[in-house]
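Listing S7. Sequence submitted for prediction.
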Amino acid sequence: MPLSTIDIVVADKSPLVLAGLAELFRADDRFNLVATAADGERFMEAVDRLAFDVGVIGWVMPFMNGSDVLDALATRKDAPRIVIYTGDVGAAVPRRAMLKGAAGFCSKQEHPDILVETMITVADGRMVFPFIDMSKPLADPFGTLTARERELLAALADGLTNASIAGVLEISINTVKFHLKNLYEKLGVSSRSQALALYLKGPD
């Protein structure tokens, strides 16, 4: 266990989760909450401005998701260690987070004490992940999609544009782009054409 206070920054898209985490860590004198952020972009701004030991971030966030943040930190010296804290229970997420350089993973379904212990362990230089059999290929990525992401994938297959999808689903174009970004990340692709190719191929 670290002897000094652990400086941390917390990022999550949910104001309620963010407030709860802030309260949790402020009540524990082992931590010094340096800042909070509502999305990945603001978290990276905190990385630029502040010095801290560990960041606890969501996996699905606006502007920059957890994967984007890990990619951005990979090129930085003295980057904070990252714990992914997410409600996405897809089995592929911990593996992706580990491969991208995260130091820890904790599900939002766990008791908050588990997150606290994970943060302490990561600050002490160790990694914390659920068991991952790295010898096996990733599970069916379609099993990780939300109902809305499946709707968008079906709309893509029907040849709809982003504007048409926004109209059909009664959401903004920016929201469509946000969902598509998360959809591409979960499928491990980088474009509409790659997502459609995978969709048409179906699970192995």
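Caption to Listing S7: primary sequence and predicted structure tokens for the chain studied. Residues 173-187 form the longest helix (15 residues). The longest strand covers residues 31-37.
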